[in-house]
TrEMBL record:
Residues covered by the Metallo-beta-lactamase domain: 12-191
Xref: Pfam families: Lactamase_B
Protein name as catalogued: Metallo-beta-lactamase domain-containing protein
Keyword Oxidoreductase listed: no
Cofactor: Zn(2+)
GO molecular function: hydrolase activity; metal ion binding
Entry-linked PANTHER family: HYDROXYACYLGLUTATHIONE HYDROLASE GLOC
Amino acid sequence: MQWLQIPLGPLQTNAYLLINDKKECIVFDPGSEGEAFVSYMESQNLKPLAILLTHAHFDHIGAVEEVRNKWSIPVYIHELENDWLESPSLNRSEFFQQGSIKTKKAEHVITEEKTLVIGDFAFTLLFTPGHSPGSVSYYHEPSGIVFAGDTLFAGSIGRTDLPGGNHATLLASIHDKLLTLPEETAVLPGHGPATTIASEMDQNPFLNGF
């Protein structure tokens, strides 16, 4: 399978596509520029099967409706943030002068860690709160990648100063759920370049001594 990183919007939030050899794909965090994002997928003859959200901050959900409506596909999000999709206050768009970004609630609400199967795609759901209370990471073992949202970055970690954030919880999520993955696992973050578990274990200053 192939994955693509597509930065979108003023915050350059990373949307991702995981694509199989049938041109089917899973869409992660379509954050903005919905028309252009849809046009790109059409130009590549892709067939999205679902939208998986790592969390519901405004910069990760801004293009959900365009993608969902174009292909009539379901959205997945953790139960603690399903209400955020409809609320510019909860998803913080109204506080960051981004207008009133909102979308309908998700068709599928994540309530537990499990294996999620969508067509040919299977993901291990990892509950990784801290940046937000309902942050989820999606581990695709066959490809050796984890879609980590704003939990872990190359050389950094997610911010915890927004409502629902907690620094100690974030560090525990990273240590217990992400750093226990194989060291060669590629970490695909919500912003910035991809990294690996090994690189962050060795070089991330926020994780030293944890």
